Amino acid sequence: GGSPQWVGPAGQADRQAILLVVAAIALFTPVPWTAVCVLLVALSAVTIALRIWRTARELSAPAM
C-alpha cells in the first residue's frame, strides 16, 4: 500500500543502461566484467539502503 520506490542509483532501467553501454563497448575492446559486476552490486546496495530508509520513513509517518 506504499508509494512506488524509484529512489537509488541502480534501478532496473539504470542497471540495464549500464549493461547495454558496457556490452556495446565490449564489442570493440576487452571489458573487465568483474569490475562491472562489482559496480552493479555496489550501486544496488546503495539503492536497497535508500529504499529501506524511505519505506521505514513512510511507515513511521502518521496516517492521514
Describe it for me?
By secondary structure, this protein is mostly helical. The protein is 67% helix and 0% strand. It is built from two helices and no strands. It starts with 11 loop residues before the first helix and ends with a helix.
Task: Quickly list its features.
0% strand, elongated, 64 residues, single chain, 2 helices, mainly alpha
Annotate the secondary structure layout:
Layout: H1 12-26, H2 33-60
Q: Uncertain runs with pLDDT below 50, 5 residues or more?
A: none
Rg of Cα set = 16 Å
Taking the alpha carbons of the first and last residues, their distance comes to 14 Å
Q: How many beta-strand runs? A: 0
Structure, briefly:
The chain has 64 residues and is mainly α.
